[in-house]
TrEMBL record:
Signal peptide: 1-27
Organism: Faecalibacterium prausnitzii
Residues in SpaA-like prealbumin fold domain copies: 382-477
UniProt keyword annotations, A-Z: Cell wall, Membrane, Peptidoglycan-anchor, Secreted, Signal, Transmembrane, Transmembrane helix
NCBIfam families: LPXTG_anchor, RrgB_K2N_iso_D2
Ranges of residues in domain Gram-positive cocci surface proteins LPxTG: 491-531
Protein name per Swiss-Prot or TrEMBL: Peptidase
Length: 532
């Protein structure tokens, strides 16, 4: 049994990351350097005397951190993977005889690591006393044995996107011995995208921003990236369950409609689990009050029933859902930003010893733009006192004015009907102040046609409306050809009497002139008579 030290060391080294506070995953820009400003604690699991040639281990006993061997053995025997290998009356030497038969990172070694972890940290409030702590990027082990090395760094609550270094069970050949912790970890991340229709600048697809009409349905996509375990490791296996939650927040101008799909992809193979609601959850409790909902997968490791799937190979999880802009949406009639923001934050398992401990990624945000068309109807010139009420207009998407953009009225604004139900299309009418404004148009080219002029007025020519914009997750830039503020003038105002050919008018002019000449002659003749 004394010769079992090498096998024991191999088995216990297999529990690297046994109690990692964060799994490996991709960072946004750079990996987090854990050699700086991190503190560590060491817990002794086994103790013994190691020979000078480091080949044999004798006098094996429980380490100082195993304060209740009976409870530890009970947990070993209860484990579904390795429980049959142990008995509750085993000594430390007996345990050594069992685990020395295992191999690096096999199922048994990992199961043993989980038992050690749960024994030391039975609940969220557990605070086991370490043998030693250090803050130097390494730890000075005072006594030979096997230790659990724990990253015990304190992070500010606002600094939630951090990574704890991995924990290791290590053998110490001779004491004192400095264990150098020289590892970096990276973290999961999430991205949000929104579908944008094809326009003059972009092809249809998912981007960081989009523009849409109010009441037009479109999709959001949430993409979580869970990277492969580093160095062909089995980091995810140390978790009893590995959960992810998509915490999605909509602005007041965006309405959630329905979940479309949940797809997990690994090694280039997509697994669509949308049809199996037992694999994921949707919590819409806070949608109405806080515009907030959660899509969760309780255990990514087991939700794919394919022997080829292994989360240690890495995976992406894509959630797609449909939403629309509502009448509370912020609108643009000039370049600038918008309040139609939509963001997601990924919440993920970050501590295999405590499933209640979560990691949180930074938020990923997208924006959705929509535009307001402002129109004012005037009689014959632009004048504050010259506005015309009651002129009827309709909006079209083609120059022939055959494809109407149907609108409904709510208050002083007109809105696109699009995918809305229970709305009745109406003709726009200029109000007392001459205005008839359309709220919530998508980018594109439209034609405004006067279809019902007031009595005594002729319809004006159609007006071409261009909404051309480039945008991103920060703001929108309306091009110079865009015309979202229009003054519409009707020059055909007043009442014109009918004419029958022109001779009558000429006769009036001739007779009138003759009478005037005659009057003048009579007046001059009379004056002369009086003078005589």
């Amino acid at each position: 049994m004394k010769k079992a030290m090498k096998k024991l060391m191999a088995a216990l080294l297999a529990v690297a990351m046994v109690c990692a506070m964060a799994i490996p995953a991709f960072a946004y820009d750079t990996e987090e350097d854990l050699n700086q400003l991190h503190g560590y604690s060491a817990f002794q699991i086994f103790k013994g005397v190691i020979s000078k040639d480091n080949e044999t281990l004798s006098n094996v006993g429980w380490g100082s951190s195993i304060t209740k061997p009976d409870e530890f053995l009970a947990q070993l025997t209860a484990d579904p993977t390795i429980g049959g290998e142990f008995k509750t009356n085993f000594t430390a030497q007996d345990v050594l005889a069992v685990i020395s038969k295992w191999h690096n990172s096999d199922d048994y070694s990992i199961a043993f690591a989980r038992v050690v972890c749960h024994y030391l940290y039975p609940d969220a409030n557990a605070n086991p006393k370490p043998v030693i702590t250090d803050h130097t990027g390494g730890i000075n082990i005072p006594e030979s044995g096997y230790y659990l090395i724990v990253d015990t760094t304190y992070f500010n609550l606002r600094d939630f996107y951090h990574a704890y270094n991995s924990f290791f069970l290590l053998n110490v050949p001779q004491a004192p011995y400095v264990v150098l912790v020289n590892h970096k970890v990276v973290k999961p991340y999430v991205e949000k995208e929104v579908y944008d229709n094809q326009d003059g600048t972009n092809e249809a697809g998912f981007y960081s921003s989009a523009d849409h009409a109010i009441n037009e349905e479109f999709q959001f996509k949430l993409i979580a990236t869970l990277p492969a375990s580093r160095d062909n490791g089995r980091a995810y296996d140390y978790y009893d369950e590995y959960a992810v939650l998509f915490n999605d927040t909509l602005s007041k101008g965006i309405t959630y409609d329905r979940l479309d799909s949940v797809v997990i992809e690994s090694n280039g193979i997509p697994y669509d689990i949308t049809g199996d609601s037992s694999k994921y959850t949707i919590d819409t409790t806070d949608l109405e009050s806080h515009n907030y909902f959660v899509v969760g997968i309780p255990d990514v490791k087991t939700c794919v029933e394919d022997p080829r799937f292994n989360l240690n190979d890495g995976a992406t999880i894509t959630v797609t859902y449909t939403a629309h802009l509502n009448d509370k949406a912020a609108v643009n009639s000039t370049s600038g930003s918008t309040d139609n923001k939509n963001k997601v934050q990924l919440q993920y398992s970050n501590n295999p010893r405590n499933s209640a401990y979560w990691g949180f990624t930074p938020e990923s945000e997208v924006r959705v733009y929509t535009y307001q068309l402002n129109n004012t109807k005037y009689r014959d010139e632009v004048n504050e006192n010259n506005k015309l009420e009651g002129a009827g207009f309709r909006l079209y998407s083609d120059a022939d004015c055959t494809n109407e953009v149907e609108l409904y009225q709510d208050g002083k604004f007109y809105y696109p009907i699009k995918n809305a139900t229970g709305k009745t299309a109406v003709e726009m009418k200029s109000a007392a102040d001459g205005t008839f404004n359309v709220k919530g148009l998508d980018a594109g080219t439209y034609y405004l046609k006067e279809t019902n002029p007031p009595t005594g007025y002729s319809a004006c020519d159609k007006t071409k409306i261009v909404i051309s914009a480039t945008h991103d997750e920060h703001d929108v830039n309306l091009s110079g050809e865009s015309n979202l503020n229009n003054e519409i003038i009707n020059k055909a105002s007043g009442i014109t009497l009918p004419s029958t050919g022109g001779i009558g008018t000429t006769l009036f002019y001739v007779v009138g002139s003759g009478l005037m000449v005659a009057a003048i002659v009579l007046l001059v003749t009379k004056k002369r008579m009086e003078n005589k």
